[in-house]
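Hey, quick one: can you model this chain's 3D structure?
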Amino acid sequence: MSMTRDDNKTVEYSPRKRSSSRQGENRSEDPPHFPGYQIDGELGRGGIGVVYRGRDLTLNRPVAIKVLNSDEGTLNQRTRILEEARKAAALEDRCIVTVYGVIENEGHSAIVMELIDGHELNNVSAVLEPKQLAKIFVEVSRALATAHEAGILHRDIKPQNIVVTPAHEVRILDFGLSIRVTDVTQEEGFSGTVAYASPERLQGEASTSSSDIYSLGVMLHECLTGRHPFAKLGKPPTVSSILAGDPVIPRELRPEIPADLERLCLACLSYKPENRPNAQEVYQALQNILIDRPIQLVSGRAQDHVINRIEEHVSTIEKWQQLGMVENRDRDQLRWFYRKILEGDDMWPTETRKIQPGEIGLYACVWIAVVVSYLCGVYYRVDMGLTWSWLLPLGITFSLASAAWVVEGTIQHRIRPLFFGGAILASIPCMIAMLTRFAWVPDENSTRELFGSAGIANRTLFLSGLIGLVISVMRLNLTQFSFYAWLSAALLAFTHMSVLLLLGFVEWTQGNQALGVLSMAISWMVGAGFESMGRPRFARPFHWTSTLATVCSFFLFGITPFLEWVGLDTGVKNVNTGWSIALGGLALTGLSTLLDQSHRLERRRIALFHEWVSPFFLVGGLTFAAQEAIPRTSIPDSISTLSLLFLFGSTIFYSVLAARYWRARYMLASLSGSAVLVYLIPKYELVSTPTFFITVALLSVFVSFAFYWKMVMSNQSKPQEKVAPPSLRDD
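Sure thing. Here's the predicted structure for all 731 residues.
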């Protein structure tokens, strides 16, 4: 169904009733009479009644009188509208047309409203610049925020209901169509203007505040571009095109539209109601646009049409990868960039793409305040004195938390995570200093206290970290900002380490300490939990802290060394260390291979990290062992031979991996191992040095020519001609 000019009219439809006559057939020729009011003429007609120009004879003022249709079938509807008109009269906003009252006489009902003279928005938007339109929509969004906060919906936002007066004031008409937000479950059928209706309303669902925001987005798009967002190829919009949820990109039609204004418009047009900003967020974003500040919508406001287009492209890339046209790493790189686009509104306090030059000082000052809190509460605690060591960090924490509370609800709300995150970080040294001052003092004779010399007990570290972790998790649950996920992951690692200290980590052997650090990799399970909840952004920091803990533990196992810890001793300490580090590299290579098969992008990125790190462990460890195993009286010949063979084997191993997967890091590892072998073999005195180098030079030249000749011949080889099979009759 196409929409014509008549589709800009408000319509009412309910599946429970069927009118016996067409709309408008029961309208009386003469306007109804209401005592105390004079009707001067008709202003217009809509789906629920007729609007007349009139005069309040008692107060001698011009008014608009909206007479509701007296069709008996709409009695319940008229009663509801009149009731809500009385509630709308309590709204106080300069943009909302004042409702003076509700009148009834001789079976007729009417709403008496302020009479507004001016131009409808659709008649003036064509001559306005984007910033001028933004000023108008600032007023409209603020009025909607006021109404939504009072629990009242408009349900018919469209340019014909927005009037710009000669004094350049913006007024919103027709709040008589509004209903209470708490009564949405009682709403049936459809009421409003089809061309500006949200997808859920066209599908028969109840109106919500998000429905008004969608209509606002359609109106903003139309005013900015002069075209309906779902009118394509010169054709009017259809219900099916609206339900398809693929609007035209505004800047494709009008490139001078500010990018942030386009992003806001498209966010309002999100297909899913939960992905649309609320009226207050729209108001704050428009204020930022007017003063040339970047907008930053709450996480999850990604535009549905952008997601759909990206998903289509990602599907195409996956097909290319399956056909061998795109390498796995190139595919992951593209997916990574796309994910960054979709996560662009995640309220990161260090989102440098959106930082204004004047804000850099603010970020630096908050960071310095946090550093001062740590230095005063921990490092210089004794020098600061018993009082200032906790009082100054407490003041910093309180100040940052207060700043976060103050900026909430203002156009600067996007920096709230900066202040609140800083407050959480500053609270930890504050609690450490306070607990040390008033509660716990470490046992001077205990060797378990890591910072006992500084007067800080392990349980103080544990409780401080735990409280900070709980606050950070609560903020993550409340705001859904991934910044708090990273903060929570860091505090979880801090708290986990403090638990290890309580268990006597300082007194453990090196092997047990490495095992304790490896236990911190349990945070991977937290990340897996977030993934199962559909929150991969929150899983990322826990996966990476687990990865770093794993790498650190493997290194600690190496220097223990691991071979001695499990009872396998070569008799040479440094060889044990080198081989143990190499075992860690082999384990990292195995982990990399497993993670690379995952369907999760972040896990494949972690596999890439392991691929870069593992050669340093494997080749580096074996190089160290081979260097220490150079034949001498204290080194058994078998150890020297094995050290050299292991290094040679690692070089072949990475050569095979490079040929199999074509990873640049594997090739570099293979080349590095080859160079080390050429360097070390003369030191083992297996052959004379001149003979060895001459032989290696000749072999390298000969083998390179052999490979080159093979490449030439493979390019010149002709494909074998296939013999055509005989016909079925001759076969």
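One thing worth noting: The first strand starts at residue 11 and ends at 13.
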